[in-house]
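User: Okay, second chain of the day. Same drill as before: sequence in, structure tokens out.
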Amino acid sequence: MSERGSGINKDWVNAVLYDLLKVVYDGFGGASKFRCCIVGRGLLKDLVEKLNLDFSNLTIPEATKRVLEALKAIGVIGGGDVALSDVVLDLRIHDCVHLPVQKRVKESKMPSFVCLCANLCLGLIEERFGLDTELIEINQEGGTCHIRAMLFKWD
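Assistant: Same drill. Structure tokens below.
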């Protein structure tokens, strides 16, 4: 899925992604993060099949780290770190191919409300661990995005 192997230009894809995020934000405002939390989650199934990923007997941080390692293996990110503190999941995603989108979002003063890599991780947590998730915040500094999400269970 690298740029060279697919023939897809990353700048083109990121420009389109930014424009789509802008349209969604202009239409839904702050509710955008609740409408976009599933964007990209369908790719998890493809990633699991392509790389033969197994999440059996893993903790939430271990399973999440495995997703980030898979994203690194296919060239989407340069690396990632995972920490879980009580009910807050902290992700640090380094050198993502979509970093230019987050930078444009930040420059535009539009709040960051979607991270495709985090969406994959949160989708896995919902599917495999039966928890609900909610994005708290995305902060981008340099080549790293710091994403925080809440994990909880509705009874």
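The two ends are 39 Å apart (CA to CA).

User: Thanks, on to the next one.
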